[in-house]
Structures are given as structure tokens and as C-alpha cells.
């Protein structure tokens, strides 16, 4: 019986494992190998150059600009999105006898906030291009309509404003999803805890800090990992929205865009693969650090 069970498990898992190796692990292995070569992307022999591609990254000013911009995005986008998502989810759960039932029409608000998730990132980028248009855009038009003409700007053409404008779009497009995610996590918290807090006279902030936040910590941790991965990418929205793309003056350059340009504009596929490997390990390191930090906090709380 045990032998037959073993054969069944092997037969069920082996096809999936083979597909995973061929279509997931094999491309990773090829990328790691190509990062050690000078391959130009066309048929021909790729010469092994060792770690020279990685050494070259340290002296590439454009790549270093991209790393700096991705680091800023990693510091801002996840924190801003999670903070707004938690705030909106908490506001939607105010009121009610158990302190968690939610305001009237909360489900409708969730649908409205979730709406950007129904749009592809490409469509979001195109829409916000029109919003940021310096002459006919909705943002400058609204500022002029209320007499704030002096605040109207060329949002995507000024180096000091271009990256914040892109990050604002990333937060806007993501916050609705995480608001719904956090709202579901809050719904799963036993209502008895909120009722006890009400009986003790706890304020809304104290209830959030002592009950809601600790019990949705795991959800927040997962959200940070996913948002961090998005912040370390940013290719699609920068490619579509910004001048250059990546401008002005490299103000919105990201690693994915530098990688794409190196491979498909200059034909440096080996060098681009090195960028991809560096980005892979940066993303992996970020995810491991976040997960370990969450584990440490759970141990301390225990």
C-alpha cells in the first residue's frame, strides 16, 4: 500500500516539477550564465568574461542613478501605500457596537477604492500622462481653477518632481487593493477584542495600536514584500510616463529600464543579464530581511 502511494505521489508531482525546472529554473540558470559572458544577443559564441560585467556596474553612472531611484521608491512606495491602506481600512471599520462593524456604505467605498485595480498598469500610466499634462492636464487645470496658478508645474519634465509624480501614481494604483486586503484581515479579528476595548474606554487610536495593528502584522508584512518587489521594478510605468524615457536627466531612471536599454538598444545582453542578476539578489535580500524582521517581532511579542 505504501509503495503504491509513493508511486502515485511521484506520478502526480513529477510532471509539475519537470515543467517548473524547464520554464522557471532553467531561464534563471541561463541568465546567471549569460551574466558572465559578453553575449550580444545574436547567433554566435558568447565569450566567458567572468565577473567583469558586475565590476562594470559599479562604474556605470546611469546604473547607479537607477539604483538610487529604485532605493527611493523602495523607501517611499511600500510605506505610503501600507499607511494609506491601513488608514482607509480602519476608517471603514469605525463605528458599530463592536467598534468594527464599519461605517454606512463601507462596501461601496471599498469598490470605489478598488477600481484602479481593474485597470492595467499601462492604462493607468497613459491616464496619468494626461493628468500631468502641463497645459491641458487635470491637475494643473484644478490648481488654476482654485486660483493656485503658481503651483502649476510641468510635473514630468522637472527633475525634482518627476520621480515623486511617478511614485504618486504607483501608490494611487495600489492602495485600493491593499485597503481591501487589510479590511479582510480586520474582519477576521475576533469582535470580542473590540468589545472589550470599548468597555475599557480605549480610544480609537489605542484600539488600532493595541489590537488591530498587531493582529494584521502578518498581512502588512506580506504586503510590504509585494510592494517592495514592485518598487524595485517600476519599468512599465516609467517607460510609458516619462520623457526619454527615464528623464529628465535620469531623474526617473530605474534598473529595469537601464537593463532593457542595455539589451535591446545597445545589444549588451551579457551586461544586461548582470543587471538582472543584481536585481534578483537585491529583491531576494529585501524579501528575506522583511520576513526575518516579522519573525523576530512575533517572537518578541510571544
UniProtKB/TrEMBL annotation:
Pfam family, one: BPD_transp_1
Superkingdom of source: Bacteria
CDD domains: TM_PBP2 (cd06261)
Places the protein is found: Cell membrane
GO annotation, biological process: transmembrane transport
Family: Belongs to the binding-protein-dependent transport system permease family.
Protein name in the entry: Sugar ABC transporter permease
Source organism: Dactylosporangium sucinum
Amino acid at each position: 500500500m505504501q509503495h503504491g502511494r509513493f508511486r502515485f505521489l511521484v506520478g502526480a508531482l513529477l510532471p509539475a516539477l519537470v515543467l517548473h525546472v524547464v520554464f522557471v529554473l532553467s531561464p534563471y540558470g541561463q541568465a546567471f550564465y549569460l551574466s558572465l559572458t559578453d553575449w550580444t544577443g545574436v547567433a554566435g559564441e558568447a565569450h566567458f568574461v567572468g565577473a567583469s560585467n558586475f565590476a562594470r556596474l559599479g562604474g556605470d553612472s546611469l546604473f547607479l542613478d537607477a539604483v538610487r531611484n529604485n532605493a527611493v521608491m523602495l523607501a517611499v512606495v511600500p510605506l505610503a501605500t501600507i499607511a494609506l491602506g491601513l488608514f482607509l481600512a480602519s476608517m471603514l471599520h469605525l463605528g458599530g457596537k463592536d467598534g468594527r462593524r464599519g461605517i454606512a456604505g463601507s462596501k461601496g467605498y471599498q469598490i470605489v477604492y478598488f477600481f484602479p485595480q481593474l485597470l492595467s498598469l499601462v492604462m493607468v500610466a497613459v491616464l496619468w500622462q494626461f493628468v500631468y499634462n502641463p497645459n491641458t492636464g487635470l491637475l494643473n487645470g484644478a490648481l488654476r481653477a482654485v486660483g493656485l496658478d503658481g503651483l502649476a508645474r510641468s510635473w514630468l519634465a522637472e527633475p525634482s518632481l518627476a520621480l515623486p509624480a511617478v511614485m504618486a501614481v504607483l501608490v494611487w494604483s495600489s492602495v485600493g487593493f491593499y485597503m481591501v486586503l487589510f479590511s479582510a484581515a480586520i474582519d477576521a479579528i475576533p469582535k470580542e477584542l473590540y468589545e472589550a476595548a470599548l468597555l475599557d474606554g480605549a480610544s480609537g487610536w489605542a484600539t488600532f495600536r493595541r489590537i488591530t495593528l498587531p493582529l494584521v502584522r502578518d498581512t502588512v508584512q506580506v504586503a510590504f514584500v509585494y510592494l517592495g518587489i514592485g518598487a524595485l521594478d517600476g519599468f512599465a510605468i516609467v517607460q510609458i510616463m516619462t520623457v526619454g524615457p527615464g528623464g529628465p536627466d535620469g531623474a526617473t531612471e530605474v534598473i529595469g529600464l537601464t537593463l532593457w536599454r542595455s539589451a535591446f538598444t545597445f545589444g549588451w545582453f551579457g551586461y544586461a543579464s548582470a543587471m538582472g542578476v543584481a536585481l534578483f539578489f537585491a529583491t531576494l535580500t529585501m524579501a528575506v530581511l522583511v520576513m526575518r524582521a516579522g519573525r523576530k517581532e512575533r517572537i518578541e511579542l510571544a
